[in-house]
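User: structure tokens for tRNA-dihydrouridine(16/17) synthase [NAD(P)(+)], please.
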Amino acid sequence: MSPRRLAPFLPNTRLLLLRSLNPSLDMSPAAAAHLTTVTDPDEEICSSTVVAAAAPEEIAPSVPLPPPPASAEERVERAWAHWRRLGAPRLVVAPMVDNSELPFRMLCRRYGADAAYTPMLHSRIFSENEKNRNMEFTTCKEDRPLFVQFCANDPDILLQAAKIVEPHCDYVDINFGCPQRIARRGYYGAFLMDNLPLVKSLVQNLSANLHVPVSCKIRIFPRLEDTLAYARMLEEAGASLVAVHGRTRDEKDGKKFRADWDAIKAVKDALRIPVLANGNIRHMEDVKNCLEHTGADGILSAEPLLENPALFAGFRTKEWKEDEDKDSGLDQTDLAIEYLKLCEQYPVPWRMIRSHVHKMLGDWFKVHPQVREEFNAQPILTFEWLHDMVKKLKELGGGIPLYRDIPIQSHSDTIGGGLAASKA
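Assistant: Done. Predicted tokens:
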């Protein structure tokens, strides 16, 4: 399917091109506008293909909001009905800034992902700056179920941004979990945990004014009682789903700090809406153990998918290989080729492609550091150059295969399609 450029604020039934940058909320509009004049080649979209905007007759008419739920019980019933209509997805690609973009989401879906989040989008810049919108976010009809995630600290600005995307997603998600310094400076993400009335107002305003459900991605407090009170407040404010990252705001290093599955289980037991677990998911055995331990309705994985987008199909990297696992016949160069082909189909900025290639081929670059140095020194990327680089890695040999694990449920059609594409 050819990408299609979107008329401002208007839905497109074939492909939606909506993109948003993720800088700090304290950035001025003038500074945000300056970002549109960057000359870094990695900031350019990887294809110059432009297709006419959607014709007026393709624009979906406005639909009245459904009546508000008459009771808390009805709100909970609606949350579960929506979740089940989506197929009750269990294996979900977590939101990752600059990394959970459309081509990567589609690659993960080929290998078993049931649903995916967009990267975190900046609600104010998304709603104000059309050019930046058209740079950072793409979706297509096959990209469902889809969570579109925003960071925000103003309920009205968040609603304005959410209204743009609601025809093209299954949840509008609010980021209450980002622990980075940029979130502290911009006053969003996990730093809103210090202002629960504002958190509540953000959720209530979206819940009362959107056609699609609201979800929230959170971190835990050091004290379990505070975490449970926080989660209950989100449910009462109108959230239809909560994804819980089992680390505190100060536990930024996922390799140093294990996620607290006991805390996630406590949240699941306390809430009546769907709950997703996030943290410590490196392979499918972790998925199985997490679901059993927490009782969660699904799991999210982030960093491990960047190295191994086939994780949800039961493939392991050498680091997590079990004695009984065998060479699967698939390796990370195959996945990189698939990813590049998806980028040609769904163009994104070169910086995203550069980042993914680094992470996907990291083990191969350790064996052939001279190729990594050539890659780092290449100022302007092209698909031809990247395909040649991957071919060179294969010819040099010494690569590491992915090993096959046993998935918790069959994704045979998806896996077969992915393998076939990787060998094409």
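User: Anything notable?

Assistant: The chain has two domains: 15-25+72-308, 315-423.
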